[in-house]
Write a structure and sequence with these properties.
The protein is an alpha/beta fold and 339 residues long. It is 38% helix and 18% strand. The strands form four sheets. A seven-stranded parallel beta sheet has the order 3-2-1-4-5-7-11, sandwiched between helices. Strands 8-10-12 form a three-stranded mixed beta sheet. Pfam families: NAD_binding_10.
Length: 339
């Protein structure tokens, strides 16, 4: 199988490339890389992997590689990058062939934050990616990631027998990745660095809950889809691919204030801060004191990934998010020169 992979030097795509190289050396993989320095890193570690130089705005390069591939995988800011997803869609529609082509698109459960705050109509709802699929596929365009998801959904209905799509929507991703360039996630390392710098935690008032999943468990799910795509008969299942093929990827869920408290506790236990002080703030004050990223911690995104569990026999096997917090704290302390 020939795979065109966007995001090989990122956190999600880098971990998947590691797993693909380890488990399926027979796959022919081409990766989109924006510069020669990163290309050299990939080539040194994975000499069988082919390099296509370009970025998400390189429409001609993307189109050329899409036409050659049996499967396209996108995790290079894919949830919000309209340009690259349009390039993939246009190429798939324009260059018609008799063979089936698979497109696995990485989005995110940020979609579910829409109207999910206290007193809003979607507050408290846990979305099941099978039983709630009609609701999930009809979110308004203003919802996070929705404008890009719509491009993929349109593609799914264009030629469903030839173009087979799947939208993989991870919740908060945690854990150290196995990629070559970017190996850390966003949320927990950000909280850890902020706690270490200010010597205390900032936590949101109220209850704000998101699902979460280890990056290695996410890669295993994506690999399962790729292995199915490589098997012609199995790949024809309408439940696996197409307009309803949303895969929420979660191993559980956590309250953001709990995460902050655990980060503070680990930092204090390690002697990196003097107390376990946590300041509980409203959104305005939290953003003012901690920066715009703190607005993220005043959202809810609750999901249940039934599709992967039922159709792929997938279950998370990695340690829960709580078991990775100390490692994240120590990694950020090292970056800050505190060790």
């Amino acid at each position: 199988m020939k795979i065109f992979l966007l995001g090989a030097t990122g956190y999600i795509g880098g971990d998947l490339l590691y797993l693909l190289n380890k488990t399926h050396p027979e796959y022919e993989i081409t990766v989109l890389v924006r510069d020669q320095d990163k290309a050299a890193i990939i080539a040194a570690e994975y000499p069988r992997v082919k390099i296509a130089l370009g970025d998400n705005n390189s429409a001609d390069v993307i189109a050329e590689e899409v036409v050659k591939a049996d499967l396209i995988y996108h995790a290079a800011n894919s949830a919000d990058d309209v340009s690259s997803v349009q390039s993939i869609s246009h190429a798939l529609r324009k260059f018609s062939t008799d063979k089936s082509i698979h497109y696995i698109h990485t989005s995110g459960t940020g979609l579910l934050t829409h109207d999910a705050g206290p007193s809003q109509p979607r507050h408290g709802k846990i979305y099941n990616d099978i039983t709630d699929i009609d609701d999930i596929t009809s979110f308004p365009s203003a919802a996070d990631h929705r404008n890009v998801d719509e491009i993929v959904l349109d593609l799914a209905t264009a030629e469903p027998e030839r173009i087979k799509t799947a939208i993989v929507c991870p919740a908060v991703i945690y854990g150290t990745g196995r990629g070559l360039v970017k190996r850390s996630s966003l949320a927990v390392p950000f909280i850890a660095a902020d706690v270490l710098k200010r010597g205390a935690g900032i936590a949101p008032e109220g209850e704000w809950v998101w699902g979460n999943v280890h990056v290695e468990d996410l890669s295993r799910l994506t690999l399962s889809l790729m292995e199915i795509a490589a098997t012609t008969n199995a790949a024809s299942s309408t439940a696996l691919w197409g307009k309803d093929a949303y895969y929420f990827v979660e191993a559980g869920e956590s309250d953001w204030a709990d995460i902050v408290r655990q980060v503070v506790h680990e930092a204090h236990e390690a002697g990196l801060i003097q107390s376990e002080e946590v300041k509980y703030l409203n959104k305005t004050d939290a953003v003012e004191q901690g920066g715009p990223v703190y607005a993220y911690f005043f959202t809810n995104s609750r999901s249940r990934g039934s599709r992967a569990r039922e159709l792929l026999d997938w279950e998370p096997v990695q340690v829960g998010i709580e078991g990775t917090i100390r490692e994240a704290v120590m990694a950020e302390a090292s970056k800050l020169g505190m060790l």
